[in-house]
Write the structure tokens for this entry.
Amino acid sequence: MELLDGKVTANAVLEELTEAVNQMKAEGKRAPHLAAILVGNDGASLTYVGGKVKACERVGFESSLIRMPEETTEEELLSKVAELNADDSIDGFIVQLPLPKHINEDKVVQAVAPEKDVDGFHPVNVGRMALGLPSFLSATPYGIVQLLERYKIPTEGKHCVIIGRSNIVGSPMSILMRRNAHPGNCTVTVTHSRTKDLAAFTRDADILIVALGRPEFVTADMVKEGAVVIDVGITRVEDTSRPKGYRVTGDVKFDEVAPKSSFITPVPGGVGRMTIASLMMNTLMAARKEIYP
Ligand code: NAD
């Protein structure tokens, strides 16, 4: 068994980005600029956005954190989005999800200009990805693709089974893994909450990507010997022995699945690290106008 180490790989990506920013500055260009809108005070969202701002500092990007109160109306948020769309000093921006219940998330996601949509959530980017056209790939699937690529995991002709069909992980992942590209060229099965006899599918997986948000859901008996296992799950589980009172747990029962797998991502230190690194890569591409020249 070998660890797919998100920490080491993300560090390597961030080093490469730092070099790219230095190069841009040496050419007299300004550094890429990422903005993030955070509505409300959700603890997990604050942590995620904080991590993104820190990553910007580390690679030499400019960053702007725009905090708006919980009571912000949909109209006010849409007007802020329009402002950032029109601001030439900002290369890309994200609206941290989830939004408060009174705001329609779809409406907000669709208001972001596709060429600044570094989260890759806009239907134009999702559609372009599905057609194999240049697009911003959403950060978590892009991070997984990067891990597979950098660890030179063979994917062609493999059976990739995905648990979960969300718009931000499972569905885009299925498109990327069946692309005529590397990583890709898999035969893909997407499973979800209505799948019957889930284990019959997972046991046939050469590559198993798990994104359902149920701690330690995948057990050793559900995994084929030698499988590549990617654990996307992040759930805070109460743990009074930890200083914060919780620990972060993946969707895979790591201790029993790891010995059976050829490669596996740990949680934490796996996919989560790659997600932020991928957002940074998208921002660099936005600044260089590589996707939308
Ligand atoms: P979601 O809640 O939107 O979707 C969950 C999916 O799991 C659904 O498609 C559902 O059909 C499926 N599912 C639920 N129960 C199931 C069952 N018993 N059998 C088979 N499928 C089942 O989730 P999401 O937004 O894709 O997130 C999934 C997990 O990944 C969460 O723990 C989330 O925190 C984590 N996540 C991590 C990152 C990261 O950077 N590492 C990014 C996004 C999400």
About this structure: The pocket of nicotinamide-adenine-dinucleotide is lined by residues 140, 163-166, 168-170, 191-193, 195, 198, 211-213, 232-235, 271-272, 275 (CB under 6 Å).
